Amino acid sequence: MKVVLFSLNGSYSHTCLALRCLRAPLERAGYETVLIENNLRDMSAAVLSRLYAERAEVYGFSCYIWNISQMLDIAVDLKALLPQSKIILGGPEVSFERERFDLDFIDCIVSGEGEGVIVDICDRIRSGLPIDRFIDGGCADAMSDEGILYRDGDFEGGTMLYYESSRGCPYKCAYCLSSATSGVRAKDVEQTLADLRAFESLSNNIRIIKFVDRTFNFDIKRANAIWRALLSDEFTKNYHFEICADLLNDESFEIFEQMPSGKIQLEVGLQSTNARTLDTVSRHLNAEKIIKAARRIKEMGNIHVHLDLIAGLPYEDMGSFKKSFDDAYFACDMLQLGFLKLLYGTEMRNKADEYGFVASKKAPYTVLKTNWMSFEDLSLLTEIADILDRYREGGGFDTCLEYALEGVPSPFDFYLGLRNFIAESDGRSIRKISQNDAYALLYQYIAFAYPEKEEKFSRLMHEDYAKKQVRKPPKFKK
């Protein structure tokens, strides 16, 4: 019997780890297992055609907030074409309030972890036995020791692979699905390093191994041992970790100081510096300590540091968010500005009325309004996030932008001013503006708002432009 495991990924740069987790037990049980991965940008007709061509008895769809709408559109058409095939939904998006997906073209919905139940489901289908509409996969007692689950030929042109060395999270942040489970299960140091060595043996162009662990350094002794091992030349990739900077100790910083440039990058969840906000969402961490740690690592110059903020949290108005933005900006290499999403199964969704949350009815359920921020406020922050992403995070403006922000008392006001300048002088969304026009608009903004910086800024901008563009720099005009 053939089983197709299917996912729509958010980007061409990575693959879906969940499919590999399910493939292993299915193949051990003797099932022909086919992995099909597409991208959200792929034409739906081509995706449907590829699935239909397999004519499998079972199709397993891996569902997330970013792909659920497209997955259901494909599933309904696939069921119409292959009515005898069984369509199974799994993944975090269908694990809570599953009745939302009790649709006539869906045969089974699996919540929780699927590795422990997928073979039983397929055994019953192969034997002609009925399967339950809803199945709870629960949580395994320990992490699998099956290795990296990837093999040569699994990826096409991507540069990043996901890897998990642990599941669960010690924290109970009210907006995160990790709060719905208890405890952390982890591979030990030796198994984790053995897995990382296995990535070295793959014949591919993979450059980044992204740990999907919710809090990699929940056990700081274990984390330090793995980081120390990565000092070795035998590990050649870039390793991305999501950490709690509050847990770092002196040994962590000592290891980081020795780390070869570009070997690791750290993503640090700050979310806000408003103490009441953090307490309300059960994120009981020291924001000041986190920023201090992030700044210390950034100043080492060898490790890329991301800081995350979330707009739309309780008790965070525009003034409070501006402070969080300003507190974080110079402590990191990348400031990632996200927006609160009311995920099913989280405390934030259950308290929507209390906090005046109005959220989109469709995934990813982004908050549109709160008791502290209007729709206009959050729309403005969305524009600022796009401008931040284009200029600071997108590259091409590194030196000139750094100079432009020297001595600026509020980075938030700088980007707000840039947003207003673009809106008044051009009118287009930054996403629709060409790179040449983006350079020109930034130059014009500096000349208008910071005329004392214009001359040096112009020279630095031309240098940045020459590094990224093949063409001769245009003459930017005020």
- Count of beta strands: 16
Overall number of domains: 3
**Radius of gyration computed on alpha carbons:** 24 Å
Q: Tell me the number of helical segments per DSSP (H or I, 4 or more residues long).
A: 16
Terminal residue distance: 68 Å
Poorly predicted runs: none
| CATH structural fold name of the largest domain | TIM Barrel
Mean pLDDT comes to 93
Q: Tell the overall outline.
A: globular
Write down the CATH class of the largest domain: Alpha Beta
- Structural class designation: alpha/beta
Major sheet = 6 strands, parallel
How is the largest sheet built, in terms of strand order?
2-1-3-4-5-6
Strand content: 15-25%
CATH architecture of the largest domain: Alpha-Beta Barrel
At the fourth level of CATH, the homologous superfamily of the largest domain is Aldolase class I
Share of helical residues: 25-40%
Short description:
It is built from 16 helices and 16 strands. It has 478 residues and is an alpha/beta fold. It has three domains: 2-136, Rossmann fold (3-Layer(aba) Sandwich); 160-373, Aldolase class I (TIM Barrel, Alpha-Beta Barrel); 392-478, no CATH class.
Can you give keywords for this protein?
globular, 478 residues, alpha/beta, 3 domains, six-stranded parallel β-sheet, TIM Barrel
